[in-house]
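To whoever picks this up:

The parser on our side crashed when reading a file containing two proteins. I've narrowed it down to the boundary between the first structure block and the second sequence. Both blocks are reproduced below exactly, byte for byte. First block:
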Amino acid sequence: MSVTVASITSVIALDDRAKLATHAVDARLAEDVRCYWSLTIAEPPGRIRVVPDGQVDLVFDLDSGDSHIGGTREQSIVVAHERATRLLGVTLLPGAAAAFFGIPVSGLSADWRPLSSVIGAVAGQLASRLCAAESMSVQLGLLEGFLLARLGRLEPRDPRVRRALLHIDDSHGHVDVARLGRESGASPRNLSRLFHTWVGMSPKRFARIVRVQAALRRLAEPSPPTLAALAAEIGFADHAHLTREIRAVAGAPPSELAETFKHSADPFKP
């Protein structure tokens, strides 16, 4: 049931000190997990921009042994890492966190909280094993084993949320919320309640993020379209409307983001 845009910008390196990488997941997890990822900053400080993507992250600090979970974010932030950093993470697709852990995603803060507050002592045990692992391949194997073990205990998914997510994905976020409710089989009010449980935000807010993500994907291409052409393609009123929405969601104007895509490390686009 977990669905989101096929390619997504989650984190953008703002200088060459932040090294980002993504790693594929086992096919058995593909409906629930977007990717594994790593962030390494050997010579601090390093800066990254975190862009809203409608997803939940599990994050393991390979130096301190701490483990965290971060809920869906509605505003972009810039994070400056002032010390050497080695993070390993798992990005869960919309709906997956509620299914894996049996909790409403609306109860998760966008800021990191201890993973142990959700899954108990196993969080610390997994973090310790990841820190002691001798290679990235071993670490990814440990993450995969942890997730596959939980796969058989997933909470039942609500088909109305699945239908709504698919429709938002197919339309690149250009949807009418009332129509979305009718086509998914839920009233707008009930669909909003379901989305807060499974996705962590309203359908309207999620669609807005997906729509901006569609624009970011095009801006990250080697030869991006003009803003006027992009606005018409994705369904914005004009390029000024497009610019306002990108700035509001991604935290910077399209020109700045396009330049960042061109000259810095690749954004997370698994």
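<<boundary where parser fails>>
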Amino acid sequence: MPTESHISPRRVAIVHDWLISSRGGEKVLEAILELFPQAEIFTLFYDSNRVSEKIRRHPVHVSFLNRFPQAHRYYRHLLPLFPMAIERFDLTDFDLVISSSHCVAKGVIVGPQALHLCYCHTPMRYAWDRYRDYFPPGWKEGLVFPFIHYLRIWDVTSSARVDGFIANSSWVARRIEKYYRRSSEIIHPFVDLSAYPLSEKKRESHYLAVSAFAPYKRLDLAIEACRKLDRKLRIVGEGQDSALLKRLAGDNVTFLGRLDSDGLRREYAEARALLFPGEEDFGITPLEAMASGTPVLAFGRGGTLDSILPGETGLFFPEQTVESLTQAMLKFEASEMHFSPARCRTRAESFGREAFQRRFTEVLQQLDQKQK
């Protein structure tokens, strides 16, 4: 069990953008909640059926946006109201506020004596470096640009309300510095080591991809590279690009859909290597693969630069092109015997839950002493 923070404020509030699924950000939230069992949660949208018991056992306060019809399905369309909704939360009676933010959570307004620590998963992608991915040129982009302009101003202004930032990777730390002109401590997310045991079994000849089917994940590169080299590829996941990716795929590609934990463990254990062609702020999937003893071939930008050891637990390819990925695959196959499952596992073990909680407590204590 984790050790609670030595800081014992009267009331603790933890602000999370929305709670309508259980993914990596929610796992981080659970680990923070374990440090503060008395904490109350504030969030824009909440669906108790889609979160864990660890979250449900805490008092959860939701914004007025949660009452909109089908809000959990169409919440992204309410983006223009997010800043106002997050600022309406009354946190004046809380001594410590921790925001878990990839959108607007860090913009809450706290009392003058409160300490506000933000764990930043990423500055808003759609307002900054991924703006063109979400809003390509055209008449729709022309309509949305005035609001995005306002959102950028609000995002920078609200960053001044934070007393201290934690970034989830070196990549995100650089973006916090770029957009907010703020320094940050780096605490990587963790992998559930018990869920992905080391597998020493003989590997199959196929490659694996585990991802949501979104454009920036670049699963098309994995499909095209395996087609070009005539390699088998198994893909776990689903999403908006499902029809497009299935049209690209040939007989060498198998789509597995969403798998339960047992199925995912089996896929990691049997795969030759994980292909990870997208640019992520950190990326838990490569850690899950490495915990299972599986090396990773990843695009050489983003949070994977913090987790993968090139030549030991995987390889990077420098460009998001089919040619660059195929070259990395051939290089890997030529030296495959040098990639040790035990070495992959050891690397993953340095990103454990206890290490995350210990480091989080240290940073919080340092910030608390600095503010006194």
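After patching the parser it read the second block fine. Residues 12-190+352-371 form a domain with the Rossmann fold fold (CATH 3.40.50.2000). The mean pLDDT is 93.
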